[in-house]
């Protein structure tokens, strides 16, 4: 059996070809698919810079190799055009791993998905260049940095603490728990912070990311059937955010009352 | 004596005395060298790392370097480009490595087999055979006479070309390549039998992995290898997933690997023992220190007899 041909067949498959051909059988195909996934996994060691705890939770949950086996054809196809910069590699991984975990629909996968979202959000915030905005008095609601709200179904911070300490145990650290985190990076700052927030704050901040006036926020809430919010209440809420540095201070004239 | 000359002399003395203990390069290794310089005697640096971050060479001002390679594709039919060989030659000189560790493996295979070359990105106009398939990872080859002849010829040629010994490292075997007519251990023994100049980098984790995947006793396998040819040893972790045993440089060496190291040290005197713990940027320092001490204790116990 010619060594050059056999080695070329294996190399072609490991580099991304869809099939192996004779004399390889289904058992060989399965074993080589595992090896191909293993190789792609090793090639993602550098993603530790962005998603270290995600990679650890996958390993602890027995999901790391199965994911990379499934992901390998897509990755290799994209990679064949040339090396991928880290940001692109992370972006692709987040997309496909998120879908993989979502399809599994078990508690451990849900916890892993939450860790992924948390780390991906932090990475996204940290990767952006520092922005310095115009300090002139804004009209309406103007954020003094980048903000995002994420909703979680599990105790993601508890899981992350355990992963960071290398003592994560799916039986202990996969815990259900609906909650929201607010992610914040102030303009001109490198640091990213995150806070646990209540449901109401999560709702109002999320809407305020899309609507630039208090009146607009109120209209959006009404359209969502999220309850009635009086304009003065909303003014107080957003003034509070301004006092804490999240929003630009608003003009002294408050929002006019609804007619 | 100039600093660079002193460093090369130190490295030469280092590898003549009892086995030196070193670490594979990673950002974690840099911190160890900076914070605990007595922990390691040398750092093994991958050639592929130096291509991307040549600044790593500066580590050589603080600790001797040993160069490792995974690009020559010694067992394959697609040789490295002249540019790659030139880069490698340059780094052999600038690291002052006492030897070059390379894998008993292939990384590239030509795309001449068009009927199975389905990936259009891998077929190029540059050569009649198309561009090689580049796995970008070492693959254990077909273990047969033609490959054995090729490996022997290449090791001799590269040794002459680079003017340093080229050590052959046993790769982990995850599947049996069709057409193989001998085991990896018989292949290595045959290589050493055909040439007194063949030298080995024995990766004990790879040996343990191969034996588990092929259901072979690792102690028996080790006893059949020409261990007098072993110059460097690699130790690393292993993991088990999907009913296969895999290489894992993000974990410390398991008991079986240390048991094999003891067996090896009872029968041979390698020059260097490398902890290949380089897949985790935050590898636990206490595990590294523990394993360094353990290796040094094993070496010292045999030196006192």
Task: Give a verbal description of the structure.
- The complex is a heterodimer of chains A (259) and B (305).
- Chain A has helices spanning 3-14, 26-42, 52-60, 64-79, 86-104, 107-127, 156-164, 170-173, 199-208, 214-223, 231-243; strands at 145-154, 176-186, 193-197.
- Chain A is mainly alpha-helical and 259 residues long.
- Chain A has one domain.
- Chain A has a three-stranded antiparallel sheet with strand order 1-2-3, sandwiched between helices.
- The radius of gyration of chain A is 24 Å and the shape is elongated.
- Chain A starts with a helix and ends in a 16-residue tail after the last helix.
- The relative contact order of chain A is 0.09.
- Chain B is α/β, with parallel strands linked by helices and 305 residues long.
- Chain B has a single domain (3-106, 138-303), classed as TIM Barrel (Alpha-Beta Barrel), CATH 3.20.20.
- Helices cover 39% and strands 19% of the residues of chain B.
- Chain B is built from ten helices and twelve strands.
- Chain B has helices spanning 3-14, 27-35, 47-52, 82-95, 145-162, 184-194, 204-214, 218-223, 255-267, 285-303, and strands at 20-24, 42-46, 65-68, 100-103, 106-109, 133-139, 166-169, 199-203, 230-235, 237-241, 244-248, 272-275.
- An eight-stranded parallel beta barrel of chain B has the order 1-2-3-4-7-8-9-12, surrounded by four helices. A two-stranded antiparallel ribbon of chain B has the order 5-6.
- In chain B, strand 7 (166-169), helix 6 and strand 8 form a beta-alpha-beta unit.
- The radius of gyration of chain B is 19 Å and the shape is globular.
- Mean pLDDT of chain B is 88; it is low at 1-9 and 113-128.
- Chains A and B meet through helix 1, helix 2 and helix 4 of A and strand 5 and strand 6 of B.
